[in-house]
Write a structure and sequence with these properties.
The strands form 2 sheets. This protein has a 6-stranded mixed β-sheet, sandwiched between helices. A 3-stranded mixed β-sheet has the order 5-7-8. The protein is built from 10 helices and 9 strands. Helix 1 runs parallel beside helix 3, helix 3 crosses helix 10 and helix 5 crosses helix 6. It is α/β, with parallel strands linked by helices and 257 residues long. About 2% of the residues have low confidence.
């Protein structure tokens, strides 16, 4: 499908597409480059009439340790107006919007750290399978940032519930795979050595189902999910995010917390 992506590896297996975040040296941090490559893949998928299932995974020890923390201060240093940072935030929103409107079934294969923006990316997938060694956290508030990445604050309550989302965001508490399954963040938990087999057992039967039926079902599910999110109102504020990121970057440069 695509061969020019540097930070994302794409493998097509007939009606099954495997998309792998491929920056293990950074914990698969969701930098602007990664988001750009994801957008390329997702936009190509929107026009594809053969793919039924996409499996999203991360190369290396972790699925994703979240946003690229070095990128925020670098962007603000290059462009103190915050325009570059707002463009990055907008790109994250476009990735999640594309995921939430795809008419193929999306499966997140999770291992290791699934942190912040990494959890946000995973929660926009239809189905989520994780290794029993997964660790989850929404650390934004502890870093002095609002939990605005990709519109995750609209999506999370629909999947997890308002009370638990409030708790996870305000405490920045980490939790394990079993807790994630209890919260419906994970649909299934398996040992690390069984993760690939479990994903294939889920993905391959779906990939054999009628293409039109899959697309119509996804269209119906997407319409319901997006209507529910719209009824909650938008929470993303680019100006607020830029201001908070600027203050957080100043604290990091001073060695504070």
């Amino acid at each position: 499908m695509l061969t020019d992506c540097k930070s994302v590896r794409v493998v097509e297996e007939g009606p099954l597409l495997r998309v792998e975040l491929n920056r293990p040296e950074s914990g698969n941090a969701l930098s602007g480059e990664v988001l750009t490559d994801l957008l390329k893949v997702l936009h190509a998928l929107q026009d594809d009439t053969t793919i039924r299932v996409m499996v999203l995974s991360g190369n290396g020890e972790h699925f994703s340790q979240g946003g690229d923390r070095a990128e925020f201060p670098a962007l603000l240093s290059e462009d103190p107006s915050g325009a570059s940072l707002r463009a990055l935030a907008s790109k994250a929103e476009r990735v999640c919007a594309a995921l939430s409107t795809l008419e193929v079934v999306t499966i997140a294969r999770l291992q290791g750290d699934v942190i912040g923006a990494g959890l946000g990316l995973a929660i926009f997938c239809d189905l989520r399978i994780g290794a029993d060694t997964c660790r989850f956290r929404m650390p934004e508030l502890g870093l002095g940032l609002p939990p605005a990445w990709g519109g995750v604050l609209d999506r999370l309550p629909a999947e997890v519930g308002q009370a638990w989302v409030r708790y996870l965001l305000l405490t920045s508490e980490s939790f394990d795979a079993e807790k994630a399954r209890e919260l419906s963040i994970l649909h299934s938990v398996v040992s690390s050595d069984r993760l690939d087999a479990a994903v294939d057992r889920l993905a391959k039967p779906i990939a054999r189902r009628d293409l039109a039926a899959i697309r119509i079902t996804k269209r119906m599910l997407n319409a319901r999910a997006n209507a529910a999110q719209l009824s909650m109102g938008g929470h993303f504020d680019a100006e607020l995010l830029t201001s908070a990121a600027s203050r957080a970057s100043m604290r990091v440069r001073r060695g504070g917390r």
